[in-house]
Amino acid sequence: MTTIRRFCCDDLLRFSSVNLDHLTETFNMSFYMTYLARWPDYFHVAEAPGNRVMGYIMGKVEGQGESWHGHVTAVTVAPEFRRQQLAKKLMNLLEDISDKIDKAYFVDLFVRASNTPAIKMYEKLDYVIYRRVLRYYSGEEDGLDMRKALSRDVEKKSIIPLKRPVTPDELEYD
Ligand SMILES: CC(C)(COP(=O)(O)OP(=O)(O)OC[C@H]1O[C@@H](n2cnc3c(N)ncnc32)[C@H](O)[C@@H]1OP(=O)(O)O)[C@@H](O)C(=O)NCCC(=O)NCCS
After folding, report:
1. What is the pLDDT of residues 37-86, one digit of tens each?
2. If you measure from the C-alpha of residue 83 to the centroid of ligand 1, how many angstroms do you get, rounded to a whole number?
């Protein structure tokens, strides 16, 4: 049985096994605490019986005017729990909060251009590549900025792909 609930401070001391994955970014404590304090609705953990951390999602909502959007900062599922639709459930939860509670126009995220499994998952969830961000990761690897329009963006303007790649200093939000 899987329980999905809000992430809390104590979870920061016991989620490290999930973060051993090389594609999962690890941030400093104050970064996670800021998310917990400012966007608690956007931070959820999935647990298996015995309180084992299966995965989590962390995000935020930000922007001005038609750029008001939900953002997925991290989503990860431990290898032994993958391909059970868990990331999909966590993503759907964040999308619902962005759409129904915060009335955002779209949800976006950045993914390494080489992270094919994650890109395939986002495409399955109807995200499109909005733009490529050159050398976004540590000044080396390109990132893909992927977006999904929400119900408020009736004309789906937010997901019209840019015709050229951008550099990190051109990003409005990171
Ligand atoms: C990407 C990740 C979060 C997917 O988690 P998951 O719980 O296994 O994903 P789901 O089971 O919800 O997958 C939903 C759909 O996405 C697609 N998908 C997921 N993983 C995939 C893979 N490895 N290869 C191809 N398609 C994949 C499939 O269409 C899948 O549906 P299906 O299993 O019915 O075919 C997980 O592999 C992970 O934690 N990776 C390391 C961290 C990471 O890369 N995070 C994203 C950083 S931007």
Report:
1. 999 999 999 999 998 999 999 999 999 999 999 999 999 999 999 999 99
2. 6
The protein residue with its alpha carbon nearest to ligand 1, atom 19, reads: 121
Q: Burial letters for 51-66: b for 16+ Cβ neighbours within 10 Å, e otherwise?
A: eebbbbbbbbbbbeee
- pTM, two decimal places: 0.96
| Closest residue CA from atom 23 of ligand 1 | 117
Q: Whose CA is nearest to atom 21 of ligand 1?
A: 117
> What is the CA(116)–ligand 1 centre distance, in A?
9
* Residue 64 CA to ligand 1 centre (angstroms): 31
| Domain of residue 108, residue span | 3-170
Based on the structure, what is the number of domains in the chain? 1
Condensed to tens digits (0 to 9), the pLDDT of residues 12-42 reads: 998 888 999 989 999 999 999 999 999 999 9
Nearest ligand 1 atom to alpha carbon 122:
16
User: What was the pLDDT predicted at 98?
Assistant: 98
Question: CATH code at 18?
Answer: 3.40.630.30
Please provide residue 75's backbone torsions phi and psi, each rounded to the nearest 5 degrees.
Answer: -140, 130
